[in-house]
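Session log. Operator J.P. requested a structure for one protein chain; no other inputs attached. Running the standard single-chain path with token output.
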Amino acid sequence: MKLLTTLVCTLSLMFQTFSQEQKTPSPILFIYDASGSMWGKLDGKTKKEIALEVLTTSVNNLPDNQNIGLMAYGHRKKGDCNDIEFLVDLKNASKTHITKAVSNINALGKTPLARSAALAINSLKESKTKATIILITDGIESCDGNICDIVSKAKTDGIDFKLHIVGFGLEEGETEQLKCAANAGGGKYYDAANASDLGKGLTEATNTTVDDPPGNFSIYATKNGEPVDAWVRIVKTGTNKEIDGTRTYRDTGWVHLPPGKYNMIVNPLENTKINGTTIIIESIKDKIGHKTVSFDGGKINLLTLNNNEGWDATSKVKTQEGKVVGGSRTYGRTQTIEVNPGTYDIEVMGLRMKGLETKYTIEDVIVESGKTIEVSHNFKTGIAMIGVKSGETLVDAVVSIKEKKSGKNVAGSRTYTSNNSNPREFLLNPGIYEVKVSAVKKEYAGKKETFTIQVKQGETVTKIIRF
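Structure written below.
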């Protein structure tokens, strides 16, 4: 028994150790901007105050087993390009150590981005550690060096890291070198104009780490030829399971997708007049995929037919989530429907006809920006003429028609006693039907008959009942 207990304990310990090794994430290193410009204000608060609040929230949301390091620059001396310091080691597992260190940082000096990145990356090389580096800066390089060159060379040298950069309150023309560096570092550049943007950027950066598989599918969103900031969600086709997601930040967003088909749901985060869209995409093994999503409109030319001739029908254009975004009545002619680019289902319903095939859904219609797609559906019908007589006298009767196999009621009417309605015309989908005829007038009380008819496409079948 003692041996068994020891064995169980040993196996349990081995499993826990293995589980911890499997789940322990690679460390995250924050590089914090403590240059003098951090005293500048946004929305009534200094950027230093905003950064502290947002960074504290982001750090506190990290897993308990996440190791977190901190580097700062410009916090001790004015005008010193070498004022860069590791404040918290990468082996640190205490969130409090990070938040306390940040709260004690003063903002004084310059912005040595290239030197800071080089110091951080070299520390990883020397310790043989892979990590996610997140650089938060409110300014561009103010010392010698090019951070993009530093990062590119480090990647060429095989150093294992992912670099995200969050630009806080930067002007549009100041971001090119930062975007280049983030891209070279396998990460993203996040543009933050306020506290909310900074929080969103840090949330995504801390959740997109060096441990994640590299992106194999890129997305770029535009409107009128200009890039659009958009949120992208990837859902496995036919399910509600979200596989991955990204934000484009008016640039290219990346996701990692196993081979297969997916619904890509894209919602713009600016210009609220632009509606979101869903597009079906496919990830192919060992291939890098890409989709440019243009929010310029595309057109559907819809034609509905019956027995190969123009036929009146109603239509609904639906997103993959079932939202109706367009539609029309065709009147037997081609109707043009303009919608955002995306993948749609078009539900058409033929008018006047009865049966089990009066509705049809044209699935997975792909609409592309600036293009017109031709779409049509051809319904099928035949005619059943049902009349009731007594001798040569027309008899008023109720006619009820069921589709025989399913037992579903599909049509019904009265014959009355007019040559215009007796026999009564029924336009039906091809099939076999059970017809019940029941007299209405007292002189024919109790008179009824049930029979079966077959309706064929493009043909007329006539049945006259005699009481």
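Operator note: Residues 2-23 form the longest helix (22 residues).
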